[in-house]
Amino acid sequence: MNTVRKLQSTDHKHIYEEYSGKIYRYFRYRVRNVWDVEDLTTTVFVKVYSKLDQYDGRHPFGAWIFRIAHNTLIDYLRKKREYPADQEVFSSLVTSEKLPEERVLNQESHEDLWKNVKTLTADQRNVISLRYLADLRMNEIAEILGKTEASVKILHFRGIKKLQKLMSRV
Predict the structure, then answer these.
(1) What is the reported pLDDT for 117?
(2) What does the pLDDT look like over 26-57, one tens digit per residue?
(3) Cα gap 31→83, rounded to integer Å
(4) Distance of CA 153 to CAs 119, 121, 149, Å?
(5) Which residues does 44 contact at the CB level (< 8 Å), separation at least 6?
């Protein structure tokens, strides 16, 4: 119960600073329009702040926030019937101070990788994007997706194995 009281008094700015970048990246990969990504990110934090008193501390705080983000994304996709963003969108998120040749090779690798990610099952894509774009732990991903941690680990393992196999052909 102390966790809940401590969280309720947590500064909103701290919560935003800690999670906004991760949530933005998670949405950016899945939504084409940058303005929609910004609106979705803002919507998540409005929901988080309005429901902060409902957080009971039974699950990690980050998982609770990403559950809200995941549900917000599902609602958005249902309304818009939009497909995940093109690879160029994801590539633009990766900044680099490398030589131009290295950047081109890196971009081509990223394009191949995310093209292959699109061939995974929806559950595997969700696990991969939450793990690597949002930088979440397996237990947090399990909570967000409403699955057991063991099933998330299996989805992750199988997805990575499939990606390795596909990438070795490139």
Answers:
(1) 82
(2) 888 788 788 899 999 999 999 999 988 888 88
(3) 7
(4) 19, 14, 6
(5) 23, 65, 68, 69, 72
SS (H, E, C) the chain: CHHHHHHHCCCHHHHHHHHHHHHHHHHHHHCCCHHHHHHHHHHHHHHHHHHHHHCCCCCCHHHHHHHHHHHHHHHHHHHHCCCCCCHHHHHHHCCCCCCHHHHHHHHHHHHHHHHHHCCCCHHHHHHHHHHHCCCCCHHHHHHHHCCCHHHHHHHHHHHHHHHHHHHHCC
C-alpha–C-alpha distance, residues 98 and 157, integer Å: 31
Per the CB < 8 A criterion, the answer to whether 55 and 123 are in contact is no
pLDDT of 108: 59
d(CA 121, CA 162): 11
